[in-house]
Specification:
By secondary structure, this protein is α+β, with helices and mostly antiparallel strands. The chain is built from two helices and four strands, in the order H-E-E-E-E-H. The protein has one domain: 2-Layer Sandwich (Double Stranded RNA Binding Domain), CATH 3.30.160.390. It has a four-stranded antiparallel beta sheet, with helices on one face. It starts with 12 loop residues before the first helix and ends in a 20-residue tail after the last helix.
Length: about 120
Protein backbone atom coordinates (compact mmCIF):
# COMPACT_ATOMS: atom_id res chain seq x y z
CA UNK A 1 0.00 0.00 0.00
CA UNK A 2 1.32 3.46 -0.90
CA UNK A 3 2.00 5.92 1.89
CA UNK A 4 0.03 9.14 2.00
CA UNK A 5 2.00 12.34 1.71
CA UNK A 6 2.56 14.39 4.84
CA UNK A 7 1.99 18.13 4.51
CA UNK A 8 4.63 20.22 6.21
CA UNK A 9 3.41 23.06 8.42
CA UNK A 10 4.45 26.09 6.39
CA UNK A 11 1.90 28.57 7.70
CA UNK A 12 4.06 30.59 10.06
CA UNK A 13 7.61 31.87 10.15
CA UNK A 14 8.07 30.10 13.49
CA UNK A 15 6.92 26.73 12.12
CA UNK A 16 9.23 27.06 9.10
CA UNK A 17 12.15 27.95 11.38
CA UNK A 18 11.83 24.49 12.97
CA UNK A 19 12.27 22.73 9.61
CA UNK A 20 15.70 21.41 8.73
CA UNK A 21 17.46 22.87 5.67
CA UNK A 22 17.44 20.39 2.81
CA UNK A 23 17.82 20.10 -0.95
CA UNK A 24 14.19 19.20 -1.68
CA UNK A 25 11.25 21.47 -0.85
CA UNK A 26 8.69 20.77 1.83
CA UNK A 27 5.32 20.46 0.07
CA UNK A 28 1.82 21.55 1.05
CA UNK A 29 -1.12 20.36 -1.07
CA UNK A 30 -3.38 23.20 -2.17
CA UNK A 31 -5.76 21.65 -4.69
CA UNK A 32 -6.00 18.54 -6.93
CA UNK A 33 -2.26 17.86 -7.18
CA UNK A 34 -1.27 21.53 -7.15
CA UNK A 35 1.21 22.14 -4.36
CA UNK A 36 3.01 25.01 -2.68
CA UNK A 37 6.55 24.17 -1.73
CA UNK A 38 8.99 25.75 0.66
CA UNK A 39 12.68 25.26 0.01
CA UNK A 40 14.68 25.95 3.12
CA UNK A 41 18.26 26.92 2.47
CA UNK A 42 20.90 27.80 5.04
CA UNK A 43 19.93 31.50 5.08
CA UNK A 44 16.48 32.01 3.62
CA UNK A 45 13.52 30.15 2.19
CA UNK A 46 11.91 30.24 -1.23
CA UNK A 47 8.32 29.52 -2.23
CA UNK A 48 7.83 27.13 -5.16
CA UNK A 49 4.64 26.14 -6.98
CA UNK A 50 4.24 22.65 -8.46
CA UNK A 51 1.61 21.91 -11.13
CA UNK A 52 0.81 18.34 -12.24
CA UNK A 53 1.57 17.46 -15.87
CA UNK A 54 0.41 13.84 -15.70
CA UNK A 55 2.14 10.50 -15.28
CA UNK A 56 4.05 11.65 -12.21
CA UNK A 57 5.51 14.72 -13.93
CA UNK A 58 5.28 18.29 -12.66
CA UNK A 59 6.07 21.82 -13.78
CA UNK A 60 7.67 23.91 -11.05
CA UNK A 61 8.00 27.68 -10.72
CA UNK A 62 9.58 29.87 -8.06
CA UNK A 63 6.88 32.26 -6.89
CA UNK A 64 8.74 34.30 -4.28
CA UNK A 65 11.06 34.59 -1.33
CA UNK A 66 9.68 33.60 2.07
CA UNK A 67 9.33 36.13 4.88
CA UNK A 68 11.94 34.31 6.98
CA UNK A 69 14.28 37.29 7.33
CA UNK A 70 12.07 40.27 6.46
CA UNK A 71 8.43 41.17 7.03
CA UNK A 72 6.12 40.14 4.21
CA UNK A 73 5.21 42.84 1.71
CA UNK A 74 3.92 40.56 -1.07
CA UNK A 75 6.76 41.48 -3.44
CA UNK A 76 10.22 41.23 -1.86
CA UNK A 77 9.06 38.73 0.78
CA UNK A 78 5.88 36.65 0.95
CA UNK A 79 4.09 35.03 3.86
CA UNK A 80 2.22 31.73 3.46
CA UNK A 81 -1.05 33.35 2.33
CA UNK A 82 0.66 35.59 -0.22
CA UNK A 83 2.64 32.63 -1.56
CA UNK A 84 -0.58 30.63 -1.90
CA UNK A 85 -2.17 33.44 -3.91
CA UNK A 86 0.87 33.69 -6.19
CA UNK A 87 0.92 29.91 -6.66
CA UNK A 88 -2.80 29.80 -7.45
CA UNK A 89 -2.35 32.55 -10.06
CA UNK A 90 0.44 30.53 -11.66
CA UNK A 91 -1.71 27.37 -11.54
CA UNK A 92 -4.47 29.28 -13.38
CA UNK A 93 -1.96 30.39 -16.03
CA UNK A 94 -0.84 26.79 -16.50
CA UNK A 95 -4.43 25.59 -16.86
CA UNK A 96 -5.14 28.35 -19.41
CA UNK A 97 -2.02 27.38 -21.39
CA UNK A 98 -3.01 23.70 -21.24
CA UNK A 99 -6.39 24.67 -22.70
CA UNK A 100 -4.60 26.41 -25.59
CA UNK A 101 -5.84 29.86 -24.66
CA UNK A 102 -3.69 33.03 -24.70
CA UNK A 103 -2.33 34.56 -21.50
CA UNK A 104 -2.75 38.30 -20.99
CA UNK A 105 0.71 39.51 -19.87
CA UNK A 106 -0.19 43.15 -19.37
CA UNK A 107 1.33 44.68 -16.20
CA UNK A 108 -2.11 44.83 -14.58
CA UNK A 109 -2.48 41.04 -14.75
CA UNK A 110 0.91 40.01 -13.38
CA UNK A 111 1.15 38.36 -9.96
CA UNK A 112 2.36 40.90 -7.42
CA UNK A 113 2.01 43.87 -9.79
CA UNK A 114 1.38 47.10 -7.91
CA UNK A 115 -1.95 48.82 -8.29
CA UNK A 116 -1.62 52.44 -9.40
CA UNK A 117 -4.38 54.93 -8.66
CA UNK A 118 -4.64 58.64 -9.34
Amino acid sequence: MARSAQDANLESREARSRLAPRRKPYWHLLDHGCELGYYKGEDLGVWIARFPRGKGRYAEQRVGIADDLADADGIAAMDFEQAQAAARNWFAEQAIKDAGLPIDDSPFNIVGAPCFRN
